[in-house]
Amino acid sequence: MAQPQPAPVPAPFPGRMDIEQVRHILPQLIDALSDAVVVVDRAQKVVAANRRYLDAFGSGRAAVIGTHCQEALHCPDAEANAGSSRCSACEVMELKRPVRRVRNMTDAGGAQRRWEATYNPVLGLDGEVSHVVEVWRDISERSGLEAQLAHSERLASLGTLAAGVAHELNNPMAAILAGVERLRRWLTREQQLPARNRKDMDGVLQGIERETQRCTETTEKLLLLAQPYRAATAWVDLNRAVRDTLSLLNYQMSKQGIAMVQDLDPTVPHIWARESGIRGMCMNLCMNAVQAMKKGGMLTVRSRHAGSMVMLEIEDTGPGIQPQHLDRIWDPFFTTKPIGQGTGLGLSITQRTVTGYGGTIRVENHPGEGAHFIIELPVQAQSPGGGDV
User: Is this model's pTM higher than 0.70 or not?
Assistant: First the structure.
């Protein structure tokens, strides 16, 4: 009796690929990819991993091939799933269709990165998934730019809101100041009032005028802080930006028992920059310092002039930065604050603002004693487009 002949295997990729040539260069081919690639079979054994994957997630190539994916590699999907036994590759084997995931994870160097992973099934002749090809793309920079754009859009919305609030407040405050002036003229003309009563009434009017002017100045500071980041460059008074920022934080500092020292050098020249960027930089650093000193402390802000550079120092007496976090504080989305209290973008945006103006920013950390940020900015920016963040 004749044995049944197996069904002919169709020629793979007819007209699209020279299999013999591709077979010889396949390892170099996947190593040439800029994305991280790993291939696992149905038994979750690693059959291929390119150099980018090994560099990003850490492993030696000799120890990878033929071993279980979660044992042989620093499995990014296992980290993202917090140890769950069901990973995305397993899901693809069941669904028989591609799956895409976005993950926030640490790479082999300990830096927080954002990855977009696609899991693609490879179907065998039996219609079942024989392999899963995972492609991991580092989208940290793109995500950071998108988040900064969203942040700028929110600031623009805040600027519009602040302008409306300022308009609604300034009109009645202008009417109050006009009324104070009219009352003062009336007191000047009125001769029948005793001198003592006249003096008391004038004191009351001075108090009303002073506090109304204070409200007006506060709305002006909010408008300067929330103006669009695309505002034109101009000569910016760094000392004034610092004073206005601290005045906006004064209530929160007094509530937390934080003392404030302003050591601002009056000889510091104006710098050529975007005022919104400089004020945002001051607010980010001062707000971080205030939030770090939950049980009180001392916030010291200094400015200095040194040749063609100006220096700004912001120092707090909080707990400082944990040594293991020191190299990551500039990473987008990295934060140690509770959910809802920080986006992890403040220092990243601040660093980009400073370097965009041709300046530098560094931190001197004293665990248990506080953090000391030092910014150096040129009086004249190196590039007219610098700091446009």
Answer: no
